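User: Can you predict the 3D structure of CoA-binding protein? Sequence below.
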Amino acid sequence: MSDDVIDGLLDAETIAVVGCSRSPEKAAHRVPKYLQEHGYRIVPINPNAESILGETAYDRLTDVPADVKIDVVDVFRPSEDVPAVVDGVLARRDAAGDVAGLWLQLGIRNDEAAARAEAAGIAVVQDRCMKVEHGRLR
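Assistant: Sure. Here are the predicted structure tokens for CoA-binding protein:
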């Protein structure tokens, strides 16, 4: 993945975080908190929480109201869960016309699911930390 593509995704305003955690010690909490502190709006996706980081949490990506524009979906779920996440991204894109990028955090990779997203015109980053890349490029 080129730095230009990564930098383009970092131009996002709103990031939906699938697997966002309420536990401050987990990367799935620390990374979205960092992003929020750097001006991004975070939309937590976690069926076990009502709110995270002061934002309403949603059970699924497709539950986020269409008037909430999502630029990038950041994923903190196991690699085997990525195909279902891509299903949600594609459904969301069809319904709301948003989601330009899919970001799979460090250690998360699913080439087949990534190819499906890319075929739909969605930029995909795999196996990289959004916080690290933001710090490096911004």
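The mean pLDDT is 97. The domain at 3-137 is CATH 3.40.50.720 (Rossmann fold).
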